[in-house]
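Ticket #4471: structure output looks truncated?

Reporter: J.K.
Steps to reproduce: submitted the chain below (128 residues) through the standard prediction queue, then opened the result file.
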Amino acid sequence: QVQLVESGGGSVQAGGSLRLSCAASAYRYSSACMGWFRQAPGKEREGVATIGSDGSTAYAQSVKGRFTISKDNSKTTLYLQMNSLKPDDTAMYYCAAVSVTAGGPLCLARSNEFRKYWGQGTQVTVSS
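Returned output as attached by the reporter:
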């Protein structure tokens, strides 16, 4: 059974930084597309960033230049470095393993088409 456990969320002021981590187990970690998604109250869950099996990455337009996704294959851990945080970034952030072997851009663009395994989420709150 796939297990994804997020950590690193919290409350920060606008302009601050946070680093999210996701420990993965029982999954084809190195060959999978992994990603971060978020859901704000009253809004649909949206893709934030993905990293493909080839290491290529993709980002939502709203976070480009501020967020960086990376993974450590030896530790089967996924990261999301979030800088210059804005109040609009406030949401529950979820780590996901996407059932597709693909690059980050395709994985993000077509993530709704693929089965995903989810972590329990970690809350990020950014105050102005």
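Triage note (M.O.): checked the attachment and the full token line is present. Helices lie at 104-109.
Status: closed, working as intended.
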